[in-house]
């Protein structure tokens, strides 16, 4: 083991004033480490959505009846609160794991040489979204799982996934101006797809807010809408997204587009088919909790791939070279 360098008082003061700069001056991660850090933040942003859904689907939304403590006298759950207390408090603890993952992404991006301000900003954007969503999650508890705050909580998580996806993509690119790989007509079609996907997710939160899974065994306010009507609107929007994806794939084939956009579009189409099948099965089987949770996970994966389709339409010259023998992006995310 090598000799540990002495840390002077000046070093300690520098670390206190700007810890990120202090670390960056002494550590240079390789591109694979930075990419893995960004991927870890993305994976955790999906995990926190899925576990939040588990809290709701098990009726544990008020397992900790207050916030920021779990009870008036205890910061954590107690044995008397039963399984719901463990589930809700466990989900709160996962927020710290998410913060750690985002923190690692920020430190890795800040320490990379040469320094890339755009990556660091994407990392900090995730941090502030996590902080905002933690406060909003507390408000959700304090207002007794009001469905509108629950919907906002999910939508902010969707924004977190979007930023994390962009950062993960950018770790494999350079910082030069993006160069389009397809024409403007194709780009406009993809933006329509993105807009329809956002609307699909937003209406999905209304389906949840009006549906039977209130998140707690007590009487919880629901959105004053007919649940089946909203579900049918959600299904129509889903078919619009599927149609736009198929049309995009057809157009990309017709214009002999590069392999990247074609592959991402084909993958998205398969994800949408699987997500649609789950959606119809859960609708006709009276919304079993396992399928609803799987549908929430599918929503996150669908949103990631919609963004990957959008980001695949351009390239940035001077991309960061991949480490020799590194696995492909899709294989890495699939294994994660």
Describe the structure in your own words.
The chain has a two-stranded antiparallel sheet with strand order 1-2. The two termini are 33 Å apart. Helix 3 runs antiparallel to helix 6 and helix 4 runs antiparallel to helix 5. The chain is flat. It has eleven helices and two strands; from the N terminus they run ααααααβααααβα. The chain has helices at residues 9-17, 19-24, 31-57, 82-111, 117-142, 147-170, 184-210, 227-254, 259-284, 289-311, 329-335; strands spanning 179-180, 314-315. It has 336 residues and is mostly helical.
Find the structural class using helix and strand composition: mainly alpha
Helical residues, percent? 55-70%
Q: What gap, in angstroms, lies between the N and C termini? A: 33 Å
User: Element order, helices and strands?
Assistant: HHHHHHEHHHHEH
Major sheet characteristics:
2 strands, antiparallel
Q: For the CA atoms, what is the radius of gyration?
A: 22 Å
Query: How many beta strands in the DSSP annotation?
Result: 2
State the helix count: 11
Strand order of the largest sheet: 1-2
List low-pLDDT spans.
319-336
The shape is: flat
| Percent in strands | under 5%
Give the key terms.
336 residues; mainly alpha; two-stranded antiparallel sheet; 11 helices; 69% helix; disordered C terminus
Question: Brief overview, please?
Answer:
The chain has 336 residues and is mainly alpha-helical.
Question: Which helices and strands appear, and what pairs or packs with what?
Answer:
Layout: H1 9-17, H2 19-24, H3 31-57, H4 82-111, H5 117-142, H6 147-170, E1 179-180, H7 184-210, H8 227-254, H9 259-284, H10 289-311, E2 314-315, H11 329-335
Antiparallel strand pairs: 1-2
């Amino acid at each position: 083991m090598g000799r540990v360098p002495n840390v002077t008082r000046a070093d300690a003061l520098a670390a206190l004033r700007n810890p990120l700069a202090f670390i960056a001056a002494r550590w240079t991660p390789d591109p694979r480490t930075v990419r893995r850090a960004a991927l870890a933040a993305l994976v955790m942003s999906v995990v926190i959505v899925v576990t939040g859904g588990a809290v709701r689907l098990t009726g544990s939304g008020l397992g900790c009846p207050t916030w920021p403590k779990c009870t008036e006298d205890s910061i954590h759950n107690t044995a008397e609160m039963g399984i719901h207390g463990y589930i809700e408090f466990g989900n709160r603890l996962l927020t710290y794991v998410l913060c750690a993952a985002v923190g690692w992404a920020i430190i890795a991006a800040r320490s990379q040489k040469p320094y890339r301000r755009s990556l660091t900003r994407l990392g900090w954007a995730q941090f502030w979204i996590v902080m905002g969503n933690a406060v909003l999650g507390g408000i959700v508890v304090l207002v007794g799982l009001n469905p509108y705050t629950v919907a906002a909580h999910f939508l902010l998580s969707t924004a977190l996934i979007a930023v994390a996806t962009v950062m993960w993509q950018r770790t494999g690119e350079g910082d030069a101006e993006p160069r389009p790989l397809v024409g403007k007509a194709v780009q406009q079609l993809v933006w329509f797809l993105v807009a329809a996907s956002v609307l699909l997710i937003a209406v999905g939160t209304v389906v949840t807010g009006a549906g039977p899974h209130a998140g707690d065994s007590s009487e919880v306010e629901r959105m004053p809408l007919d649940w089946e009507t909203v579900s049918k609107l959600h299904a129509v929007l889903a078919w619009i997204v599927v149609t736009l994806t198929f049309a995009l794939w057809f157009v990309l084939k017709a214009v002999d587009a590069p392999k990247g956009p074609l592959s991402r579009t084909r993958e998205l189409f398969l994800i949408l088919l699987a997500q649609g099948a789950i959606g119809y099965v859960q609708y006709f089987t009276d919304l079993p909790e396992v399928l609803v949770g799987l549908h929430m996970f599918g929503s996150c994966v669908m949103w990631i791939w919609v963004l990957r389709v959008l980001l695949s339409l351009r390239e940035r010259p001077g991309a960061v070279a991949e480490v020799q023998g590194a696995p492909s992006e899709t294989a890495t995310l699939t294994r994660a």
